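Sequence design from tokenized structure. All designs in this work follow the same two-part layout: the structure record, then the generated sequence. An example of the structure record is given first.
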């Protein structure tokens, strides 16, 4: 691939991540408007966008991104962040990234979303897709759902079935191996120290370079679009359900598992921190209120 072709691909990927961000933010703000005031209060939230920049380990300019965060009456905390960063990997990090041993220069762009809601009947969710370039180039990403009430944390729950069906359909549309990506998600979002999954799964994939960039990009777009379609639907299904003080307590304890995973195991968190990313953006995945009993 020549340099001009690669730059064109970078531009297209970045533009799509930003477009998906805008579309998702609009959908979530619409849910803020639609949530029942009797349960969620009267004043709907709106996203606040905050740009940031970074330098790489040499001190050179290294790109940045925009945090889009909303704290509202339905969404206790939701972030839809886009970043495009570049530079050189620090020496101690190069062996962990394909292609970086030969040449430490890199470029990476992507979208990352995390949502925590006031209503414990609505599941928390995470989604990200990304395009990474070293001496190699690949896509990665996925989406996973985390119900916070034990009675909803099973494979027969309607939300679970709908979420998995949406992820399967995204894979099937591009002949992607859904069973492999589902298992990868189950294995990845697993708290080893507690011997339990973080949520009910979804799909996860990385290092996707199938030899046809257009096909890989189209699949990644399909994953983002499937998420955009299914998650607002799940929120709308559940935001009218009342909850008890016991439900809220259970939600806050379950959020503790979320914190444990993100700080102990999440590769995106580690990548962001080790490449000099924006700390506020990286740690915005953490819920605003949590309990460890």
């Amino acid at each position: 691939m020549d340099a001009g072709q690669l730059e064109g691909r970078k531009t297209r990927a970045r533009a799509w991540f930003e477009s998906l961000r805008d579309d998702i933010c609009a959908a979530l703000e619409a849910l803020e408007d639609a949530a029942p005031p009797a349960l969620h209060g009267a004043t709907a939230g709106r996203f606040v966008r905050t740009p940031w920049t970074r330098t790489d380990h040499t001190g050179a300019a290294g790109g940045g991104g925009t945090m889009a965060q909303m704290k509202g009456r339905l969404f206790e905390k939701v972030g839809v962040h886009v970043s495009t960063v570049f530079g050189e990997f620090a020496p101690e990090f190069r062996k962990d990234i394909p292609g970086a041993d030969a040449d430490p220069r890199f470029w990476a762009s992507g979208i990352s979303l995390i949502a925590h809601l006031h209503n414990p009947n609505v599941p928390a969710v995470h989604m990200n897709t990304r395009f990474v370039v070293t001496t190699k180039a690949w896509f990665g990403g996925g989406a996973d759902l985390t119900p916070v009430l034990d009675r909803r944390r099973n494979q027969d729950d309607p939300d679970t079935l709908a979420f998995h069906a949406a992820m399967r359909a995204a894979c099937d549309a591009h002949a992607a191996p859904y069973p492999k990506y589902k298992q990868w998600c189950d294995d990845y979002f697993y708290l080893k120290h507690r011997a339990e999954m973080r949520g009910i799964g979804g799909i996860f994939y990385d290092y996707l370079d199938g030899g046809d960039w257009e096909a890989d990009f189209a699949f990644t777009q399909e994953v983002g679009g499937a998420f955009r379609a299914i998650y607002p639907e799940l929120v709308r299904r559940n935001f009218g359900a009342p909850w008890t003080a016991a439900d809220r307590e259970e939600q806050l304890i379950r959020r503790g598992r979320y914190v444990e995973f993100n700080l102990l195991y999440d590769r995106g968190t580690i990548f962001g921190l080790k490449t000099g990313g924006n700390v506020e953006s990286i740690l915005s995945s953490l819920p605003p209120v949590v309990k460890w009993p």
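The first helix runs from residue 3 to 34. We note this feature because it recurs in several other targets discussed in the main text.
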